[in-house]
Protein: MaoC-like domain-containing protein
Organism: Paenibacillus segetis
Amino acid sequence: MKKIISAETIRKYAEISKDTAAIHLDEEAAVKAGYKRPIAHGMYIMGLAQSLYLAQHPTQWITTYRMKFLQPLLVDTVAIFHFEINEGDIEVTVRGESGEMIASGTFSVKEVVN
């Protein structure tokens, strides 16, 4: 599943989360820190992965999760989320638009009983 990670989305996330670190919002600060442009918040990427998965599986609930970030995701780019069931857990990978691995992790899920 592809999702555009826009500067506007990251700005809104920064406001809500109170994580207004300059590397997420300011191009000059991001470049000074060694990035081509601002980078997305790791917690935003992890939360987005969970939301995308649950939107496709509305009868499930995530009980645990872990995610390892391998490199930053630049703002104003596409993130590609992939979910695969592995022995009852959901393996998650996030890649950048050029195929580079951004993050990987695992969700444990259970069925919701109504």
About this structure: The longest strand covers residues 101-111.
